[in-house]
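[scheduler] slot 2 assigned
[scheduler] job type: sequence-to-structure, two independent chains
[scheduler] chain ordering preserved from manifest
[runner] begin chain α
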Amino acid sequence: MRRFQILILISAIFLAASFLYAQFDYQQLGWQEFPTAAVDNLFIPYSNPSLLSTGNASGIGMVRMLDNEKIANRYWLMLNFDGVGYAYERNHGNSYHMFAMGTELLPANILPNLYAGVNYRFKEGDFEDGVFRSAFTYRPANFASLAFTWDNPMHESPLYRAGLALRPFAFSPQIADYRLELSVDMNYSKAFSEDYEFQKPIIGLGTQVLDGLKISGMYNLEEETTLISFSLSPRKAEIGSLARIKDNDNYGYVYAHITPQSFKPLFGISKPTWYQMPADKKLVAYRSPRLEIGPIKIFDKNTKNIDEVIKELEKAGNDPTIEGILMINPSFSSSLPLKEELITAFDEFRARGKYVSLYFDNISSSEYIMAAAIADKIYLNPMGDIDLKGIAITSPYLKELLDTIGIEVLNFKSHQYKNAGNMFSESEMTPSEREAYESLLNSIFDNMVSLVGRRSDKIRKPVRDAILDGPYFSAQEALDIGLVDEIIYQDQLDDKLREDFSFAKRTRSLEDYRSYDWAKPKESYIAVIYASGNIVMGKDKAGNKIAQDTTVDLIRKVRKDPKYKGIILRVDSGGGSAQASDNILRELKLAQTENKLPVVVSMAGAAASGGYYISANADRIVAEPTTITGSIGVIGMAFTATELMDKINVNWSTVKIGERSDMFSLTRPWTEDEKELVTNSVSSTYNNFVRIVAEGRKDLSIEDVHEIAQGRVWTGEQALANGLVDDLGDMETAVEHMRELTGIQGEIRLIDVTSDKSDFSINIESEPFLSFMKLEAFEALNMKYIQTYEFWKDFQNDKTLMLSPIMISDIIY
């Protein structure tokens, strides 16, 4: 029925236009009285080319004059992009071309909404005798737009026009500002005399009482002509007509415009829809390329930045047609801290009065924690299970293996809780290690209980018991307890959604809507530097490692660029090289002292040991409740293989000058004097670490820091309690702290300075790409053993390390 009504309306447009335009003379399209400061459709390249960069003219369009006798010979074909436009005109057997371009003149952090543009129209074969139109537009706010154009035809006097447009409803929060537009234009030309003079104004009124239905009119007091326009905008199309009326000299146009962006739902009517959101990616704080070939970066298409998913949720929340998010068998592979960021984004989506529903064949423990926290409804397959249970940490210990092959491990650690090297030097978990892990797990488990507890009104037993009594291999048992809402097969999902929410329509994509705003706010730029991976000396690609040279260069580039007002350091690291950590921290301090840039740290999955060291002097530190942080301590690792050499009958001879010249050789044992040297170095580095933290954490003395340091690992929630972080939250929380520190009142724009936007990127499936690199023997190894190789490769030249004994990925839940 609704489609039939729209068809009738469209037919009425063309019938009305045909009636108005029974007889008329030809006039150039660009000479019509469009509101110069308010034009926002297909005709921008002709009327005011400076507005091309707003994107509202983008797409493909066709215009026809409604002349019963000459309709076939008078038409325009248009192709517009963001900032560039082209039109082909056909008139009485003659062809014309028009090229246009427009751009925003200044960055948004200096003066936004100032546009300039130009077009040039010429007859085919007569390029030199064309007409220029130049234009400037400034939109200081959403209620006002000012424009100035001048036409400069070859061999003729220029024509100047100034325009002003206003949106009175911009001052009314109850009514959308674009519902009413008032305009006035004035020409300055020699059109009616030999000298330049101002002509009487052209006044206009445009309305959009209902979304997608525009009715506008303009009256030229000088020429006593009227321009009436009418258009409909269903989804990604605009269909309309224009009529120019003066006594019996009437003419006009009909046009169609296909746009890349969608208009708001026609008449404000839309069918409520579920956005079936893909949820099968690995989420990371920063996505680094798997391979680089010159300027080409190859990414794993199954990996996504957490920021991308959060923006997707924001987009769905702003979409007027989307009433809910539906995920089928969601399997976000991610750390719990990143899932907490995702949960916050879902909370904001639901705060708009929208819904979240999830369907599972089977539910893992980590997915259930998230589902319980965000879902209005959880549906489970009748044969499905829920692997909800407690959490654990497991770690291999290689001492006996290394003893067997004849390798001795020297594990120099500042304190008993600094356990990063224990997997090499111990046969089993030490009491202090177990104590630290139990404290960590208790904090994380309490957070799990809190997240699942969001569903406590449905779960029919204490939440803690419900988690510890799992896993649940019977879907019926899970339903009886209240862990899920319904047991259904996937093909029953639409009926169940219709029953529970009154709508079941789905879409797998989100629309890009055109902006109805005239003005964008002035922006302040904040640089975001991503620090992910082990901290190492030298250079490496961002996101893979926190390489000293690469990271220092990034910070230095930012701090010397006056457009940045602050730095947000996004940390996801268990630490690494003490020297590299110190060099990175120094550059951050220079940003704060020399360049007066505030630094805010946003901790992702981990910011421990060296990861905390580079964060310690920040003006504010923000972590998620389950972020792994702390681990303020130092280790030194060394290996000797004298017994191995004896076993394989390899003899070594050495010529040296200096007793310790071969101190780090694998082929001889260490002396007590050499061990004492390294022990002293570790102790000195630890004392410096504690001092650095005390200087950065103004409320903590050196004694206070030492009490909570000694290598202990904390969750973000524990770190907030003991003063190591300032707040719990995500990147948005970090931005709010930056706003407070800088005093920025307007819009903050985060600039990712880590990624090289000039490179060409390709997304591919990771498994096919890497299959030729796999060795079956390595696939059988526990990931911890592979990490052993990575450890040796990254830190073999470092004497002291600031390295966390655990990462969030080590926790099984």
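[runner] end chain α
[runner] begin chain β
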Amino acid sequence: MNQYVISSLIAFVLVGMGLTAFILGVINYRSTGRTLVGAFMWNVCWCVFFWNFGYAWMSLCYDSDVAYFARAIALLAVTVYMMYIIRYVAEITDYSRRKEQIFLLGFTIASLIAWTQIIQKKAVTFVTTPWGYWYRSDMSWARMVQFASILAALCQYYVILRYGWKKATKERERYVLKKYCLFGPILFTGYILDTLVPSIFHTAAIPGSCISAFISAMVLFQISTNHKMFGLTKEHVSEYVFRDVRVPVLIADSEGKIVMCNDITYENLGVTHQELEENGLDILFDGRQDDIVSIKNKEMVCNLEQTDVKDEFGDLMYSIYFLHDITQERKNLREAKASQRMAENANKAKSDFLANMSHEIRTPINAVLGMDELIIRECEDEKILGYAGNIKDAGTLLLSLINDILDFSKIENGKMDIVPATYDTPSLIHDLYVMSYDRARKKNLDLEFEIDSNIPAEMYGDDVRLRQIIMNLLTNAIKYTREGQVSFALSLKGKHDGMVKLRVSVKDTGIGIRQEDIDKMFSAFQRVDEDINRNIEGTGLGLSITMSLLKLMNTELKLESIYGEGSEFYFDLEQKIINEAPIGDMSEIIRSSEMTRKKYKESFHAPEAKILVVDDNEMNLQIVKALLKQTGIQITTALSGQASIELVKTNTYDVIFMDYMMPEMDGIETVKRIRKLSHNESANATIIALTANAIHGAREMFLGNGFDDFMSKPVKGEKLEEILIQYLPKELVMKSDSSNDVEIDATVLENHEKPKKSLKQFLQTTLKINMQDGLKYCMEDQDLYEEIVGLYASNNEVEALNTLYSEKNWKEYTVKIHAVKSNSKNIGANDLFELALALEMAAREENVEYIDNNHDSFMKEYQTLIDEIGDVIR
């Protein structure tokens, strides 16, 4: 191989290195978003290009004049190269710009002086060498200045790196700075070959500096590319996202073949790249439902998200699949659903409990208040009437407590509804005064009503709940006021667009409330000053219920109070105006409403009217008959649903009262059968549900199953007469004249043989019955009590219960044992009551083991008591 070929190859390599550096510099500059640091790197790269190009041209020309010019270009590139190296490293380490400029100025001056001397023709001698046309030089002072400036530049380079090392806070930053330290030794090694070596040994220069310049520049380029020292780029971000994102990412081509995926795909899903390429996504999935997939051989569920990438013509290029692990989320969701089901079951159990307790509690209250009403109507003795009044007050309080608990349950379940209707404003005010006056009078409190005379006479809203809200406030004010007065004010705040804004206020001179206790006032079951107020009756739910009801009416309760002086509760309420006529002066109406005990007077007579009352509890039937006897209504009773069906086939009734919870056939099933009868003499009768089940949804349930109306127990005489006036044919009803008593031939209680006197002695001595408890349910009426005991013995359910037990008919067994339980409680057979209660609960839960172990012993006790009573009364 001749000399020219070798020199050509060397020149070709040098130019190739220069071009490579130049191209990479351009790419780097564009990929870094044309940043300043990217520009410095580009300048370094084109300096390498001219450095290498100059020496390559020089090695090929074999002409001293041309070689001189080519070498001058290369040496100028060397000087600029070092300047940009300094600027580059200063920029990435955030070095002091002022210090950098001072050093560059000194380096530039020294380099230019050295350059002007070195490029002189007498400084070097060009010679032909095996590797081309190169130079040989002596160690002149210019060469020494050049060498010193390059060495000073390298020292400055390391000073700047040292600054960056001290400033670095992350291990990654220090790791990168260590790599930058390679630049100096690489450049200096090559630089010696064509500076010191020719000068010291008087030999031809070797092109080491341009090679080392290329290598050192590539070191900087590689570090900057791998460690992202030049800012963010789309390519860098994409690489990081694809590599480091913590979800499996798979990329498929337009044919559906997997061509790429990140490392976590293999780690998490347990597959290899080859398996994915050969089988596609199907190898991963054990099952798929929409976007949810199960991973094979793993207890893992993922959400599959697909993104299609299309070209500018709309053709699919590839699809990207993201697999998001939702195993824990699905587990949490299942647990949440299980918890929700448990909560719903618990809520249903609570509702069922409230329904049952409503029935259980209201049934004896019905008896107590019903009998008490009869005493008030028929008794002339003022002392006894006083006792009866106290019983009525206590029973009414007990009912209000039950209603509070039921209302609170409705609010908790979100089932409390506001039902607006047209109402008469004076009637509302009159009712509030009537209901609160007696309470205030008993505590010697002044009750003041201040009513704005311009309030509209008729409005549209839920007057039932409005009465409840205001009565809660009035009742609380009276309860917590020992002396002074309670004031109720209803004022007009304004009118607009057919609406009226009212201010409702209740003020008292009671004990007041401390500021720190105000929040407790509106919490359920909370009371303030328990030591002072411990004897005041109530559940502590009144204000909480009031707050919730007002929220449903889009308003809120406000409170102002001074401890020891009194309180004022007030709220603003908007109602729709129906009749804009003002109510006028209400003072006369209020004065005429002052409560005095009045003798009962039936509100109507209807001797031609016929009603049917269906209830499996005969005591309830007697109460209804007694409450209505002065109206003259013809009353027929039935103890079962089947008996009522037979009666309507041959008798015409105007109204039918139907109990819900009865054995064999409950009230709903009975009504459905009555409605379907082909021959029904009472097809036009109004059927009213009569039940102690007063929880939320009861009315809707009954109306949706064929009933025409709903009436909850305990039955009140006034409510009973009111509903009969509403549904009896108008031509059969004669309204009573309050000034004249009308003599009527009333239906009396059904005749039962009067128990012998020895029954009283038996009841006083037997341990199976607590006569005092039984008398309480009969208002201490001995004759009525003995009659009910006789009915208890004659209504023997032993055979029916045994039949239901043998048939395993737990639904009817529950109903029947429930009736026996209630009747046992009514006569004071407390032990039997407890046994029956336990069997009823077991039957509801179908706890067959408990029933099997206790049914026979209960039947024996029950039969023995019936036999003992029967022996006495026969």
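[runner] end chain β
[qc] chain β: The chain has 32 helices and 22 strands.
[scheduler] slot 2 released
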